[in-house]
Amino acid sequence: MVEVRGHGFLLAQYVPGNSLIHRTPLWLKFLVVAACGTASFLIVDWAVSLAVFGVMAGLFLLSGAGFKRLLGSLWMVTPILLAIGLFQWWQLGGPTAARIVLNVLVCVVAASVLTATTPVQELLDGVVSISKPFRRFGADPERFALTIAVMLRSIPFIAGAFADVRDSARARGLERNPRALVLPVFITTVAYARQTGDALAARGLGEADDATLGQRRE
What we know:
Layout: H1 20-23, H2 26-42, H3 46-62, H4 67-92, H5 94-117, H6 120-131, H7 141-171, H8 178-202, H9 207-217
């Protein structure tokens, strides 16, 4: 049995509470996240991006999720944003680099506000409701929500597997050996994927697709 470890994740996990943010309707939270994503393409002034980031960080703290969780969400993307920021600063200058980095941070914090104040099941039910109008185009809202659920469960596991393998390799003095890092993570991830697939198949998920595929072949 592959164990899911409690390592950090890009987005903050749900924190029970009764704050104003917790009681905000889910559709409004979705709207705020979508607005932040859209704004990241429209904002051209880093000072505006900084102000929006401050507002979203304030909402996160207002929810009672805690400053430590906020830092945890930001820390996960710090190495990537540092590389992006340095490259953009070299190519386009400091103000543009700051705007791009801050816009990404705004999106991360906005999504973290959503996940920190909404139970996973409620979040998935909301995804199903929002996706229902797309049934006419052949979309399956339930499977879409299931995909998100599997993703939310899998990414922390993979991150945890890498952290465990890295610590083990460091203890053996092999932290600079790519094989000692990549191969165990690959094997563990494949085992986890097969276990997840078996669990879904045991619940009858995927059988409809197989039947449809068989009809098409006939």
